[in-house]
Write a structure and sequence with these properties.
Elements: H1 3-31, E1 43-50, E2 54-56, H2 63-70, E3 74-83, E4 86-89, E5 92-95, E6 99-102, H3 106-109, E7 114-116, H4 119-122, E8 128-132, H5 133-140, E9 149-152, E10 157-164, E11 177-180, E12 196-201, H6 206-219, H7 222-229, E13 237-242, H8 246-249, H9 262-289, H10 295-303, H11 308-345, H12 357-383, H13 387-391, H14 399-435, E14 445-449, H15 455-466, E15 471-477, E16 485-490, E17 496-504, H16 508-512, E18 516-519, H17 529-532, E19 533-537, H18 538-543, E20 552-559, E21 562-574, E22 589-593, E23 600-605, H19 610-624, E24 633-634, H20 635-641, H21 644-678, H22 680-688, H23 693-727, H24 738-764, H25 768-773
Parallel strand pairs: 6-11, 8-10, 17-22, 19-21
Antiparallel strand pairs: 1-2, 1-12, 1-13, 3-6, 3-12, 4-5, 4-9, 7-10, 8-11, 9-10, 14-23, 14-24, 15-23, 16-17, 18-21, 19-22, 20-21
Length: about 775
């Protein structure tokens, strides 16, 4: 009979369920990372903690055998050393990504599957390869590649002995090639061949015992540490990191794969509960509001002998049927929107209809719980009506029912306004990140990685590229402005600071656009600048207690003869610039010239057609370098990539927040339509007595407006606190001002007024004669 209310209920529940299912699939995927390994609960990654640098996952290769030798808690150890070699196939050069040297126990610890060959035996031989199916198809066009050879530039020829399935997407270890660790040769230094180290312990509870032993060794100092590991840095210690916690609880430098964030799991899970809660609140609100209209039905059924239990069963059955219909529609909506959601979230999610029994069994449970939660309360309210008062059409709803609906509306809008604030804060923070000046000019800078080039070749390459018409300036450096080597230093009062050292050439400051606030730039005509000059940033002056221009800083240089320390005079001070994402604070930074450490070529292009300049640069590249493929990237794109996960989070949060707000408006629309219908006769009398359309709209709207204002007062401090915690992840962030709080409340208020006004205007424009004949 009430098609409108039924439609609102079904659509509200189905949209709410669809949003929950999408979030469930996302959360399930994130939580499933590395859970598929048989020994996942017994596998740990070893990290090193440095007193100045913090935690690192770069472990000397010698550590693996030493862990097996000295610690009975370790059953197996696997080393992974990442490399990016250049290979030659059919005269074409390729730089290989996700190439690892590893130990034979790799396939004994991890459940990666081979299509052809035996991983353990292959990884015992030097110069043998395991290739994934996708890599085989990319390089050879087929997976039938066992026995074929690949020539590695500046290395040996390797033979493919096995083909592996592509690693699952929910693995933090991704690889295209695996080579035997034996291919690297013998260790000449304890620090050689650093990489990742994974340990399989004898049993799950061995972790605490092993960690205690590692802590005791660290407390034992230099002699004890050297006795076992053969390397030592003052204050060094080791920490075990559970394999299953790496994806969501680790964000260390040089992670194999960009990790997730457990905070996003909490936030999205909360949003899923909120969406479903709003949908259920809508159902309860409309069902209790319609209770008075169904009182006559209840009265007739009770007179004819229906018990309270039978009535409760009837109304719950209606709720279950609506819930089942909503679930079916929700699954259709999810199937239609899943490709778009995958594109936004960067996932490949799917509904496991047949692969997981748990998922299929959850459907009847969802229908039961949803029907019980949303329909249970209205069912008991309706079933308790007395037949005499129901048949007399006596007003059956007391103040308690009205208060309940008001409380539910306030709850809905507390949630909606909080979500509006959350969306505005995340979007403003992302806009702040994108617009913030980083201390250098990131536009039109091309980066070209350099591998194993002699100083003369690098200098000649720079000179020729600098002569091109499309270039403004060219520089050689350790890396881009986002990358630098790091060393510890002592500041005032013996406080330890992390200091970034960046080896550059004379044109670095000019090419990057870093601003000099005092002193001068490096000058190629001043011979002393090449070895005994340094430029520091403002933070270095403040943190390290430097006096400014003319003061000295120490710089360590490395060569075939070992390392040596130079005293460099500060010739310039530059404005602070960021050496990473805005999650990290600006560190004291020292620029110095060291031609032996250049690994990157920075080219500032003139604004205009980029393709022509890139082609010209590639032509020059091939003139000087014939054993490496030409590759490049733009600095601004690299900066944008730093915030890929945050941008995805903000986009997905905006979508689900909009969904929750829509559901709140949908429920308010249904409640307003019922209110207008319930007061039909009152509206007719008021119109006969001279009330205008404005008077009627104000009459119906004011109660809802009051509730929204109350919700705004409640939600503002709550959202301020929650989003303030999220912003603490950024060293540089926006402030949550009153403008965001007020604007969020105004948006919710405007949405409520528009939603309610439709039904209010419709009631106000109705013929008073028809209104007075109502009922």
């Amino acid at each position: 009979r009430d098609k409108g209310h039924a439609f609102i209920n079904v659509i509200g529940l189905s949209i709410g369920l669809a949003g929950c299912i999408l979030i469930f699939l996302f959360v399930r995927n994130e939580l499933s990372h590395d859970q598929f390994h048989t020994y996942a609960e017994r596998t740990y990654r070893l990290t090193i903690n440095y007193p100045a640098f913090g935690q690192s996952i770069s472990i000397p290769a010698i550590t693996g055998p030493r862990m097996l030798e000295y610690f009975p808690e370790v059953e197996k150890a696997v080393r992974l050393r990442r490399s990016d070699p250049v290979i030659q196939i059919d005269s074409e050069l390729y730089r290989v990504e996700n190439f690892f040297y590893t130990d034979p126990a790799f396939f004994e610890i991890f459940d990666f599957h081979l299509k052809i060959g035996d991983g353990v035996s292959v990884l015992q031989e030097p110069y043998t390869l395991i290739i994934t199916e996708s890599a085989a198809i990319r390089f050879f066009g087929t997976t039938d590649v066992v026995g074929r050879t690949i020539e590695f530039v500046n290395d040996n020829t390797y033979t493919i002995r096995a083909v592996a399935e592509d690693p699952p997407l929910n693995s933090h270890i991704t690889f295209n090639f695996l080579a035997s660790f034996e291919s690297l040769g013998s260790l000449e230094s304890p620090w050689q061949h650093q990489g990742y180290l994974y340990l399989l312990l004898t049993h799950k509870n061995a972790e605490r015992k092993l960690q205690t032993k590692l802590d005791d060794i660290s407390m034992g100092g230099h002699e004890r540490f050297m006795e076992i590991f053969s390397y030592y840095v003052a204050g060094m210690s080791h920490t075990l990191q559970p394999l299953t916690s790496i994806h969501l609880h680790s964000n260390l430098d040089r992670e194999i794969k960009p990790p997730g964030d457990i905070q996003y799991i909490y936030i999205f899970s909360a949003v899923a509960v909120i969406i479903l809660l709003i949908a259920c609140v809508n159902y309860i609100n409309l069902a209790t509001a319609r209770a008075t209209r169904r009182s006559l039905e209840v009265g007739v059924r009770k007179v004819l002998g229906a018990s309270r239990t039978q009535l409760v069963r009837q109304f719950l059955a209606e709720s279950f049927i609506l819930s089942a219909l909503a679930l079916i529609i929700a699954l259709v909506v999810v199937e239609l929107t899943l490709p778009l959601f995958n594109n936004l979230s960067g996932k490949e999610l799917f509904i496991p209809y047949t692969s997981e029994i748990f998922f299929m069994l959850s459907f009847p449970v969802i229908i039961f719980l949803l029907g019980l939660f949303s329909g249970g309360f209205p069912a008991f309210i309706l079933a308790k009506y007395k037949p005499v008062t129901a048949l007399k059409k006596t007003k059956t709803e007391g103040p308690a029912g009205l208060r309940l609906r008001k409380v539910l509306v306030v709850i809905q809008y507390v949630i909606s306004i909080s979500l509006i604030i959350a969306v505005m804060v995340t979007q403003n923070q992302m806009r702040y990140i994108q617009d913030k000046h980083l201390g250098f000019n990131k536009e039109h800078i091309v980066q070209i990685p350099l591998y194993d080039l002699t100083n003369s070749t690098a200098a000649s390459l720079k000179h020729e590229i600098n002569r091109l018409a499309g270039t403004t300036s060219v520089s050689l450096a350790t890396g881009s402005p986002l990358k630098a080597s790091a060393m510890s230093s002592l500041g005032e009062d013996e406080e330890t600071f992390l200091v970034r050292y960046v080896s550059v050439d004379h044109d670095y400051v000019r090419t990057t656009g870093i601003e000099i606030v005092e002193g001068r730039d490096f000058d190629i005509d001043i011979p002393g600048d090449k070895r005994y000059a340094a430029i520091v940033n403002e933070t270095a002056i403040d943190k390290l207690g430097l006096e400014g221009i003319g003061d000295y800083v120490q710089v360590m240089r490395f060569s075939d003869r070992g390392s040596e320390v130079d005293e460099c005079s500060i010739i310039g001070i530059v404005r602070d610039f960021h050496h990473g994402s805005l999650h990290e604070p600006i560190l004291p930074t020292i620029l110095y010239i060291d031609f032996s450490l250049f690994g990157n070529l920075l080219i500032r292009l003139q604004p205009g057609p980029v393709g022509v300049s890139i082609n010209d640069i590639e032509t020059v590249w091939r003139k000087f370098i014939d054993n490496q493929p030409f590759s490049y990237s733009f600095l601004d794109e690299e900066i944008d990539a730093l915030y890929l996960s945050e941008n995805r989070f903000a986009t997905v949060l905006s979508i689900f927040a909009s969904l929750a707000i829509f559901l709140g408006a949908l429920g308010l629309f249904g409640l307003a339509s019922f209110t207008a219908e319930h007061r039909t006769k009152e509206i007719g009398i008021r119109k006969v007595l001279g009330a205008t359309v404005t008077n009627i709209v104000t009459l119906i709207s004011k109660d809802f407006v009051k509730l929204v204002l109350i919700a705004a007062v409640i939600s503002a401090p709550m959202a301020y606190f929650i989003m303030g915690k999220w912003l603490e992840n950024f060293a540089y962030r926006i402030d949550i001002g009153f403008d965001i709080l007020i604007l969020s409340a105004l948006i919710a208020l405007l949405l409520a007024i528009v939603t309610v006004s439709y039904n209010a205007v419709k009631a106000a424009l109705s013929n008073p004669v028809d209104s007075l004949r109502y009922e």
